[in-house]
Design a protein that fits this description.
Layout lengths: L2 E5 L3 E2 L5 E8 L5 E9 L6 E7 L5 E2 L7 E6 L4 E6 L8 E10 L4 E5 L3 E5 L2
Parallel strand pairs: 2-11
Antiparallel strand pairs: 1-3, 3-8, 4-5, 4-9, 5-6, 7-8, 9-10, 9-11
């Protein structure tokens, strides 16, 4: 069973920084992509950033220039460096992984980590 374990969520003041981490384990198939989504209260889950093999990272317009996604493929880990955080970045952040099972891509989610930006 694939597990995604996130860490790094916290309470931070506006303008501050946080670094989220997500480690995947238990996967029998290679990872095609890893990324981050977020869900604020009363809103739908939305893509924050995604990194797929052999593709450039993809970012939501609202985080471009402030957030950076990176991967450690040897350790099946993805990071999200978040700088210049704003109150509107407050949300539960979910790690996502797509595994290449040959005939299909299978989708997995972490439990989520809370990021709160407030003074």
């Amino acid at each position: 069973q694939v597990q995604l374990v996130e860490s790094g969520g916290d309470l931070v003041q506006p303008g501050g920084s946080l670094r989220l981490s997500c480690a995947a384990s238990g996967n029998r198939f290679p990872i095609f992509s890893m990324g981050w989504y977020r869900q604020a209260p009363g809103k739908e889950r939305e893509l924050v950033a995604n990194s797929a093999n052999n593709y450039r990272p993809n970012y939501a317009d609202s985080v471009k220039g402030r957030f950076t996604i990176s991967r450690d493929n040897a350790n099946n880990t993805v990071f999200l460096q978040m700088n210049n955080l704003k109150p509107e970045d407050t949300a539960v952040y979910y790690c996502n992984a797509l595994l290449d099972e040959g005939r299909r891509l299978s989708n997995y989610w972490g439990q989520g980590t809370q990021v709160t930006v407030s003074s």
